[in-house]
Specification:
Layout (H helix, E strand, L loop, with lengths): L1 H16 L17 H33 L13 H27 L10 H23 L5 H25 L6 H27 L14 H4 L12 H6 L4 H6 L7 H4 L8 H18 L10 H27 L1 H14 L1 H7 L11 H6 L3 H45 L2 H5 L5 H43 L1 H47 L1 H7 L2 H51 L6 H42 L24 E11 L5 E11 L3 E5 L6 H8 L4 E9 L2 H4 L10 E8 L8 E2 H6 L6 H10 L3 H6 L7 E2 L8 H14 L2 E7 L7 H18 L3 E5 L11 E6 L2 E6 L1 H7 L1 H20 L4 H34 L4 H10 L3 H10 L2 H30 L8 H52 L3 H6 L2 H43 L3 H46 L1 H7 L2 H51 L3 H42 L25 E9 L6 E10 L4 E6 L5 H7 L5 E9 L2 E2 L5 H6 L2 E3 L8 E2 H5 L7 H10 L3 H6 L7 E2 L8 H14 L4 E5 L7 H14 L4 E5 L11 E6 L2 E6 L1 H4 L6 H9 L1
Parallel strand pairs: 3-9, 3-10, 5-8, 8-9, 14-21, 14-22, 17-20, 20-21
Antiparallel strand pairs: 1-2, 1-4, 6-7, 10-11, 12-13, 12-15, 15-16, 18-19, 22-23
Helix pairs in contact: 2-4, 2-5, 3-4, 3-6, 5-6, 11-12, 11-16, 12-16, 12-18, 13-16, 13-22, 13-42, 16-18, 16-41, 18-19, 18-22, 18-39, 19-21, 19-22, 19-38, 21-22, 21-36, 22-42, 26-28, 26-29, 30-31, 34-36, 34-42, 35-36, 35-38, 35-42, 36-38, 36-42, 38-42, 39-41, 39-42, 41-42, 46-48
Amino acid sequence: MFVSVYIKIEAMKVAFCGNDNTSAYNVSAGVLKNVCFVDALNLVPHVFLLFITFPILFIGWGSQSSKVQIHHNTWLHFPGHNLRWILTFTLLFVHVCEIAEGIVSDTRMNSHHLHLFLPAMMGFVAATTAIVYYHNIETSNFPKLLLALFLYWIMAFVTKTIKLIRYCEDGVPLSQLRFCITGIMVILYGLLMAVEINVIRVRKYVFFMNPQKVKPPEDLQDLGVRFLQPFVNLLSKATYWWMNPLIISAHKKPIDLKAIGKLPIAMRALTNYVCLKEAYEEQKKKVANQPNRIPSIWLAMYRAFGRPILLSSTFRYLADLLGFAGPLCISGIVRSFQNTNQNYTTSAKDPSNPYLSSQDFFRNVYVLPVLLFLALILQRTFLQASYYVTIETGINLRGALLAMIYNKILRLSTSNLSMGEMTLGQINNLVAIETNQLMWFLFLCPNLWAMPVQIIMGVILLYYLLKESALVGAAVIVLLAPIQYFIATKLAEAQKSTLDYSTERLKKTNEILKGIKLLKLYAWEHIFCTSVEETRTKELKSLKTFALYTSLSIFMNAAIPIAAVLATFVTYEYTNDTTLQPAQAFASLSLFHILVTPLFLLSTVVRFAVKAIISVQKLNEFLLSDEIGEDNWRSAESSVTYESCKKHTGLVTNGYFSWGSGLATLSNINIKIPTGQMTMIVGQVGCGKSSLLLAILGEMQTLEGKVHWNNINETDSSCEATGSRNRYSVAYAAQKPWLLNATVEENIIFGSPFNKQRYKAVTDACSLQPDIDLLPFGDQTEIGERGINLSGGQRQRICVARALYQNTNMVFLDDPFSALDIHLSDHLMQEGILKFLQEDKRTLVLVTHKLQYLPHADWIIAMKDGYVLREGTLKDIQTKDVELYEHWKTLMNRQDQELEKDMETDQTTLERKTLRRAMYPRESKAQLEDEDEEEEEEEEDDDNMSTVMRLRTKMPWKTCWRYLTSGGFFLLFLMIFSKLLKHSVIVAIDYWLARWTSRDNETKASDSTDQKQSYHVAVFSVLCGAGIILCLITSLTVEWMGLTAAKNLHHNLLNKIILGPIRFFDTTPLGLILNRFSADTNIIDQHIPPTLESLTRSTLLCLSAIGMISYATPWFLVTLVPLGVAFYFIQKYFRVASKDLQELDDSTQLPLLCHFSETAEGLTTIRAFRHEARFKQHMLELTDTNNIAYLFLSAANRWLEVRTDYLGACIVLTAAVTSIIYEPDSGFLGLGLLYALTITNYLNWVVRNLADLEVQMGAVKKVNSFLTMESENYEGTMDPSQVPKDWPQEGEIKIENLCVRYENNLKPVLKHVKAYIKPGQKVGICGRTGSGKSSLSLAFFRMVDIFDGRIVIDGIDICKLPLHTLRSRLSIILQDPILFSGSIRFNLDPECKCTDDRLWEALEIAQLKNMVKSLPGGLDAVVTEGGENFSVGQRQLFCLARAFVRKSSILIMDEATASIDMATENILQKVVMTAFVDRTVVTIAHRVSQILDSDLVLALSDGFLVECDAASNLLLKEDGLFTTLVKTNK
């Protein structure tokens, strides 16, 4: 037994120190003199660490993690955290070198010497354990356990130092690799020991009485913070390991805002805004005394964000330098492989020399692949770190800039906006475009200084490989670079002109969609459609140019390396005595690929730099533009000496106010506003009533005089109860209603505390409850730009309700009755103003046209032409200005008569009916969908979640196929064929190069060699030429196909929408339709073609690379299987997460942009309410939400790229190792390695492009969903030529058993209606809400489905007529005034059929002739979008003139004259009756008084025609519907 044990021990000795040297175990000269024992001594620290730490790791944390997972709120970093990780990684790398050196040295020995590499292996395990152990201690915040590591570093340092001293004593030279490694390790262990001492010094966890307690960062204590990149350890930071749970969870449920949480404090917009603001203010101070200089935003940005950019640039430099390891290693591996046999004969086994020189080590054929693998891992890690840091900094900069812009908007002078110096479009551009330009510039910034270094290094290495021939190739690249820049600038120009045309097209499309009802009723849709198509043609022409230059750019990028390689190798072949070697050829080929990238990027970077300079100029102009004056009087800072101030809230003395032009808009204003009373401001349209309100609010420029506000709470004891009110804010309702993109409730309470009783009182006073009841979610329904479209009256009442609800002393209402009918106005006056406000003793200033309310006023201010005509009570004016009082009295009497005659809540009823119609189909559709869902749920309840997840992970191949085929089958075939051919030729070029360079080295003497050389060069040149031509063809075919698809899809979409039924527009939000023409069309136009091109190129490159490597070394296919499986899962998980994050980024961007535009639109309201701080806070929240989504998307991209890059590195390693084992020709080895490096570059692009294409195909899917919609039936059974040219001449209408519905699946709205209207009769249609009045008017134009019965006009059944013919022969005046941008002539007569005389006649009838004549250009005067340069009243008059221009014998009036003052309205009614005396006029009676004189009255109830006779006859029936309506409404 003892013998066997002894034999085992002897065997171990032999195994550890070798058995070829008897003196290996001799310790007679001292233990430390024996190298083997010194190596054994080095094992002790490693074994000690493993012995101590393994129980703690596997017993302590193992049991803990199985019970409860350590939450990230316990994470913190000990001092020297990052340095420790860097040193440990360096230590691991040195251990790998030590292991490799030991193994290579061992191969030179006669027997195995474990002591050469076993301690190094144990050291590697110990270093790995040390960092895992440290990470666990850090996360649990238990520093006392670090003592084990401290002891380990000391022991390791001591043992390595002993080994180093031993080598020094033995006289081992510095050239020996083992000596260098040992020296480096002594330094590393020493540094790690120093780091550990520093932790003890700072945390005082041992040797000190009072250990320092540390809490985790504030962000991590907030469980809402999920973005952990700044807090995790260095390995997790480098590999984005912390993203794993989020990306994997996306497969189980979609990523939402809750999943991504909040931004860390350091990345929030407010934090970065403070930094940038301080830096900018510093710049302002520097140039304060130099009037010609402006503060530099560049310097401010550098001060605030310079450090991370420098860090990113450092990472970039390191990555670029490591990038050259690829070509150098290819060269080294191929050379080593070529000389393998020779090397091995020279380096025979030599037991007497155990030391290996660095040169011998690197000459080993297996060492370089491992070094190349490690270099690739490092290079890609540094590159991704550089990308991440720049993107994070760019996002921080954008957040800071947005906050700066928003703060400026809130202080912007109103005159800037009203006078057009600063338009909403410019502000939106600053927010959406300029800040993004600067962000993108910052992303590309490190390239500016990294690229020159990359180019210089590349050229030097090429020269080292190929001498003078390399300069020829470099010259080709450098000479072609300016062409790249030229193409890039042309590309930018084409993009700009495309954007201009796109904006114009969108503007026209938006106008069409807003006025679609009018266009259909007037049969003008084809005129406007043609106009859009014309703009689209221009846009497509610009897009063609854009596509051409994009193709050229792609072509140049692919063709330049081919051209450079051709020039270089042909030159080398003819100018050198030696033949081209594979090592030279493939290393230089790799270098050319590296060189092209910076030159290709250079043009992009320069272009973005130019854009950034322009953006900064625009930003500076905006930040230095005029601001609103400091309204000290609003803060009651100015001392008021007037005794009368006790009675008055506000005083204006000798006021001259301007809108910034320098000319006084308001002159000599001296007014008083009594406290707790109602002041009314009256006057004609355009006399300065609204301006006076804004001047009091401080929105106008004060040229002279003062505005005094009194502090009510201090001066009036009766107001003690109102102490809780905001003393200096004003509840203000502007003339143009302004709503937030929020719920109805949020719009009304406007940031104030919710009081149920008060809320109900306000909604009742404004008659909002019936409207709220119609909304799908009541007052929780979202309204505004992105919500449900409300009518003008409904919007106005919500704004008034907001003003009433606020707990302020002062209420300013600017023409609140303008969009309301008389009945509703009266209700608002009685309940809202006289009761609600007066009881509250609030000061009210009311601008109005409704003179019948003058008796209620406590104080009246009469305005005329910008000055105060009269001021005082009604009695004062009665005594002082009898003429004015009599004029008012006349108008008041008329208005009172109207009020008495009012028989129905006219306009409001129509608004509610429109809303009900819009809501009903949504509900019915929702019900149908719910029913379908219920059925499905019953069938496959269990599979529901898995089906959803399966659909989420599946690529939308059907949509892709639809897109590709919409470009045409010929182009699709051409694209596929040219792509395959191009990549085959490119592979053939490299294959031929491998064959050419693999031929036996021979001197160029014999004729046969010359012939061979010429043959090789000729074939290579032909292949390169073919490759260059095919590069151009493929890039052109992809862009051409994309353009054709875009053209066809837009054309089909526009025609489908224009010809769609009116119901579609009632039920589909305008924003949704407009999105198809804006965002989705833009994606189809400009984003899908380059993505498709990039995807096909990357995929084919990767496939050809795998094919080529497999051809060179078939063993590679075996290792490809696990790599392929890993790649499949990476792309599978990434695609789903990326899609979710992209959608989150898009969905969070829209509210942010809308918040900016709605703030600019409602600036006066926000400032009046003093809600700037609340809006700022909301903006910061929206910015942070968008930024966190973008940051996570960026981190997900880095997550993917790191993993695909590491996979690529594994492919390179396996390709190199299998090649060496398989031993192919050296040329094919070089080819295999070159292609393996190519895969590293393109692998992540395959996944990225696939994910992008999946998201972009969503746009095609959305467009296709609209293409399935049914169009209106424009064809009739009659030919248009059969219809008489002057039809309808008489205006006779027969309604026979008419049944009407809005959609096939909806109930009828008119049932069996029969009526006869004689030519020239004046007909009134009345009935209760929902009786079908408006449906009947739409039936005349076949806007609704006539499923039974018919309408015969002048003997022709309208259902037989082509729609265009029918609608072009009738006239209608709609409720909403719609004008289109263009000229007045175009708005009256888009078909250009009428003479000027006829147009002037129409304008005269509409009382607009004098006003139009005074405009520059007369009939050709400009009308802005939506007719915004005219008042609402004027717009309605233009609509009336438009109806008069069309000389139709039938006019249908859907009256809307609420915004016109009573005098004008009365004249207008007379004009209508006289101008259309010989024509049939059908009036939808919103004011029943209008139809009392009608020849015929149709009274409808629930879709049935109940009564049909003259009004006088119907009134005789006491129990009749018409009589009942009159009685109930009197």
